[in-house]
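User: tokens in, sequence out, please.
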């Protein structure tokens, strides 16, 4: 640590002599030069790993930690970088992960949904794709206060976002169009075993939406009123997704739509998850689809 401090002092003031700094710190001059040489040798050895780590760190929008970068490297290259080395290089080269601030839910009074039953009862585990979809809508603020809406649907078996839509206004026509496009791709047999779970938002209680699900043979499930935990999977996704978005750079709705697509593609096709055998959702779907 003393040698590192001497190096930093020298870099900040070139007029100071290394010998004088070493005498002041009561360390040997030869010891300092050995430290510098060793440090430089390690920098040379780190060069390839650093380029790789920096590449995936930036691809994660500076949100990827050691485990995420480790999984991305293993999934994309033949090179293996020890997780301890990733941790050291991130620390030494200033690749500081931006941590998402916790935004805890407030406990709200429980109330049963009088219209549609909660079929899941917070049992979100399913081994097969296209058995349970969790869906919701959230706000996106951009361009100094303009508001857009993002509707997204998550497959709970793969954590993949199987459908999404960015809207200026959340009309019921947008939601029915989105779900008709999504569900019409599935076979009749698959639709009959599918549950679409949501909160009690206006779009999901609207007669047109409910009729669409019934017409296509899809079961509908709803959270209890005021219980965000009943639809936790999609709520959790929105938290991670907004953390990855850079809404400040979006000056127009077109730019916002492009930003959402880039982050959605990263989440589905590149961002690995430990729970998915360290694979991205879309890749994991391909793996398990061949098993059934």
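Assistant: Sequence out:
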């Amino acid at each position: 640590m003393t040698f590192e401090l001497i190096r930093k002092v020298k870099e900040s003031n070139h007029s100071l002599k290394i010998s004088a700094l070493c005498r002041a710190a009561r360390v040997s001059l030869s010891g300092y030069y050995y430290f510098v040489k060793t440090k430089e040798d390690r920098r040379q050895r780190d060069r390839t790993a650093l380029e790789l780590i920096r590449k995936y760190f930036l691809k994660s929008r500076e949100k990827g930690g050691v485990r995420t970068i480790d999984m991305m490297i293993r999934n994309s290259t033949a090179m293996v970088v020890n997780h301890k080395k990733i941790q050291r290089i991130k620390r030494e080269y200033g690749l500081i992960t931006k941590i998402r601030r916790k935004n805890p839910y407030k406990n709200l009074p429980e109330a049963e949904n009088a219209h549609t039953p909660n079929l899941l009862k917070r049992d979100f585990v399913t081994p097969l794709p296209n058995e349970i979809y969790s869906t919701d809508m959230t706000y996106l603020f951009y361009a100094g206060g303009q508001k857009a809406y993002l509707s997204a649907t998550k497959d709970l078996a793969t954590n993949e976002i199987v459908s999404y839509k960015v809207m200026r206004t959340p009309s019921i026509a947008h939601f029915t169009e989105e779900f008709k496009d999504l569900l019409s791709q599935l076979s009749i047999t698959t639709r009959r075993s599918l549950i679409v779970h949501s909160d009690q938002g206006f779009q999901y209680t609207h007669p047109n939406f409910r009729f669409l699900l019934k017409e296509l043979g899809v079961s509908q499930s709803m959270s209890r009123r005021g219980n965000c935990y009943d639809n936790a999977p999609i709520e959790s996704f929105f938290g991670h997704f907004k953390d990855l978005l850079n809404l400040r750079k979006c000056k127009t709705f077109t730019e916002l739509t492009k930003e959402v697509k880039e982050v959605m593609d990263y989440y589905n096709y590149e961002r690995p998850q430990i729970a998915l055998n360290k694979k991205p959702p879309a890749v994991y779907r391909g793996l398990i689809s061949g098993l059934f």
